[in-house]
Specification:
Length: 135
């Protein structure tokens, strides 16, 4: 498994923990790092994403919520929202990752941590956002 894949899993679990628990994202990331003991390269990517997330979390949520055609934001599960946040952040702010790769990784994460229905939902939301960005 690639280092970015491990970083994405760590980040999704941290985002989920901070969403449903009484933890900050920094606390959740620190717990995951302690538990998993990732490589320094993985930690560097996690730290980079965590910093961007802290700066742009409201923008990410606003864009996700705006793309929820026919869905209220409250219906999106915590796991799915964590995956959407991470993928959208990579699409918007990580230039070396092609958007289609970010979407593919998000779909794979949804299959691993949620369901096939969630993977289709995430693919649809991210594709919608990507098409809006292209316009």
């Amino acid at each position: 498994m690639g280092r970015r894949r491990k970083a994405r899993e760590l980040l999704v679990q941290s985002l989920y923990a901070s969403e449903v628990g009484a933890k900050t994202l920094d606390e959740a990331v620190a717990e995951q790092i302690e538990r998993r003991e990732p490589t320094s390269t993985t930690i560097a990517y996690v730290d980079r994403i965590r910093e961007v997330m802290a700066e742009h979390s409201h923008e990410l949520d606003d864009r996700i919520d705006a793309a929820l055609t026919g869905w209220s934001p409250e219906r999106v599960g915590a796991v799915e929202r964590a995956i959407l946040r991470l993928a959208l952040l990579e699409i918007l702010f990580v230039e070396e990752i092609p958007p289609k790769v970010a979407i593919s990784e998000a779909v794979d994460l949804a299959r691993t941590y949620s369901s096939d229905d969630a993977s289709r939902f995430i693919n649809g939301v991210l594709d919608h956002i990507l098409n809006e960005k292209a316009e």
